[in-house]
From TrEMBL:
<comment type="function">
    <text>Catalyzes phosphorolysis of the pyrimidine nucleosides uridine, thymidine and 2'-deoxyuridine with the formation of the corresponding pyrimidine base and ribose-1-phosphate.</text>
</comment>
<dbReference type="InterPro" id="IPR017459">
    <property type="entry name" value="Glycosyl_Trfase_fam3_N_dom"/>
</dbReference>
<dbReference type="InterPro" id="IPR017872">
    <property type="entry name" value="Pyrmidine_PPase_CS"/>
</dbReference>
<dbReference type="Pfam" id="PF07831">
    <property type="entry name" value="PYNP_C"/>
</dbReference>
<dbReference type="InterPro" id="IPR036566">
    <property type="entry name" value="PYNP-like_C_sf"/>
</dbReference>
<dbReference type="InterPro" id="IPR000312">
    <property type="entry name" value="Glycosyl_Trfase_fam3"/>
</dbReference>
<dbReference type="InterPro" id="IPR018090">
    <property type="entry name" value="Pyrmidine_PPas_bac/euk"/>
</dbReference>
<keyword id="KW-0328">Glycosyltransferase</keyword>
<dbReference type="InterPro" id="IPR035902">
    <property type="entry name" value="Nuc_phospho_transferase"/>
</dbReference>
<comment type="subunit">
    <text>Homodimer.</text>
</comment>
<dbReference type="GO" id="GO:0047847">
    <property type="term" value="F:deoxyuridine phosphorylase activity"/>
</dbReference>
<dbReference type="GO" id="GO:0004850">
    <property type="term" value="F:uridine phosphorylase activity"/>
</dbReference>
<dbReference type="InterPro" id="IPR000053">
    <property type="entry name" value="Thymidine/pyrmidine_PPase"/>
</dbReference>
<dbReference type="Pfam" id="PF02885">
    <property type="entry name" value="Glycos_trans_3N"/>
</dbReference>
<dbReference type="GO" id="GO:0006206">
    <property type="term" value="P:pyrimidine nucleobase metabolic process"/>
</dbReference>
<feature type="domain" description="Pyrimidine nucleoside phosphorylase C-terminal">
    <location>
        <begin position="345"/>
        <end position="418"/>
    </location>
</feature>
<dbReference type="GO" id="GO:0009032">
    <property type="term" value="F:thymidine phosphorylase activity"/>
</dbReference>
Length: 431
């Protein structure tokens, strides 16, 4: 096979065989194919697309380009959850202990944040002593003993995807649905899950901007997962506004604790309940979603989910005292609020812009090499449709630089829209 011929085939609208896709991915991973040829192929795929069969074959080729975890030693059906990324998306920190407390094993690999999207691993690292790198043996043993482990992705997990994504990022070929689907699903399959629950974000703060495209991506990933023997379900959820109230690493840990204690963002809990019900059903712990939701509610109200969170932190070397004493988490030097001068409703929250403000405070990275400040960020006083009483914070800024604090306090007023008129709450879950 010659790469030239394969580029021409896709340029002219042809369909690749499995062998051709295997050749492309294997050769590119081994540096036999130069970036300029792969860039040409990616652009041809961007314009001409791929069939579902091609996308499934591409997914599996990337999944097998590096390590594939064997989690067969873990008792039970392992179900993974993946979010396509957004702002104040703290679902894993709530969902993992909640589902584990109901008896389903949670063996999860998560990523770091980049740009305006937060990363689960960064949030966990704000807990003093927390280890997010475990050996495969420790990972499996922790899940069998405690029912839960969440770690960073292995360095040799889907190396083809890492190379392809870096190239897509600089060649304007990121937003291709087949390429997005294969990128996400290759990592989930290589991570060893038996089942996969997907949360596809849509809106201003998400990669997918319109509901039709988000549903198309969700359905394609479900088809890929099911076609390779992984029970897969997907939901499309709103990311026009931040999901939770906290934007920033240690702040999101605080919010996760609040939710597990029965407080915090209702939207965050609602998404966790929907995703968690699917996870319990796929894992065979519940017979249907109604029973699963009752189990999840009981785990919350009884305190079992919070206890499981403490157990999870301790098992990975973290200081579980943070659950009862949040002052043990990284603290920002400067904290200042923008308060309501009268009773007001929140009319709009621009997720992308608020995420970027938090990133510029230091809560996120503009490049993968950037270091982050675990203590800084934004705490919102409510979501769209909520009322903020006179004197209460509309938003609070956490910063370690006085100039950045002043800048952020002014900047957020452009992207948090308030009104004295009643505002309807937007739809949270579209599918």
């Amino acid at each position: 096979m010659r790469m030239y011929d394969l580029i021409m085939k896709k340029r002219d609208g042809g369909t690749f065989t499995k062998d051709e896709i295997d050749f492309i991915i294997s050769s590119y991973t081994k540096d036999y194919i130069p970036d300029y040829q792969m860039s040409a192929l990616l652009m041809a795929i961007y314009f001409n697309g791929m069939t579902n069969e091609e996308t499934a074959n591409l997914t599996m080729a990337m999944a097998h380009s590096g390590d594939v975890l064997d989690l067969s030693e873990i008792k039970g059906i392992k179900v993974d959850k993946h979010s396509t990324g957004g702002v104040a998306d703290t679902t894993t920190l709530v969902l993992a202990p909640l589902v584990a407390a109901c008896g389903a094993p949670v063996a999860k690999m998560s990523g770091r944040g980049l740009g305006h999207t937060g990363g689960t691993i960064d949030k966990l690292e704000s807990i003093p002593g927390m280890r997010v790198e475990l050996s495969e043996r420790e990972f499996i043993d922790n899940v069998n003993k405690h029912g839960i482990a969440v770690v960073g992705q292995s360095s040799n997990l889907t190396p083809a995807d890492k190379k392809l994504y870096a190239l897509r990022d600089v060649t304007a070929t990121v937003d291709s649905i087949p390429l997005i689907a294969s990128s996400i699903m290759s990592k989930k399959i290589a991570s060893g899950a038996d089942g996969i629950v997907l949360d596809v974000k849509v809106g201003r703060g998400a990669f997918m901007k319109d509901i039709e495209s988000a549903k198309k991506l969700a359905n394609l990933m479900v088809e890929i997962g099911n076609s390779v023997g992984r029970k897969t379900v997907a939901h499309v959820t709103n990311m026009d506004e931040p999901l939770g109230l906290a934007i920033g690493n240690s702040l999101e840990v605080v919010e996760a604790i609040d939710v597990l204690k029965g407080n915090g963002s209702k939207d965050l809990l609602d998404v966790c309940m929907v995703l968690g019900a699917d996870m319990l059903t796929i894992a065979g712990v519940a017979k249907d979603t109604d029973e699963a939701k009752e189990m999840l509610k009981e785990a919350l109200t009884s305190g079992k989910a919070l206890d499981k969170f403490k157990e999870f932190i301790s098992a990975q070397g973290g200081d579980a005292r943070i659950v009862d004493d949040i002052s043990l988490l990284p603290q920002a030097k400067f904290v200042e609020s923008w308060c309501a001068e009268e009773d007001l409703y929140i009319k709009d929250l621009y997720a992308l812009d608020l995420g970027l403000i938090a990133m510029k405070l230091g809560a996120g990275r503009s490049t993968k090499e950037d270091s982050i400040d675990l203590s800084v960020g934004i705490m919102l006083g409510g979501k769209i449709g909520d009322i903020v009483r006179k004197g209460d914070p509309i938003a609070t800024i956490y910063a370690n630089d006085r100039d950045k604090l002043e800048w952020a306090l002014n900047e957020i007023k452009k992207f948090i829209i308030i009104t004295d008129e009643y505002v309807e709450r937007p739809q949270l879950i579209y599918m």
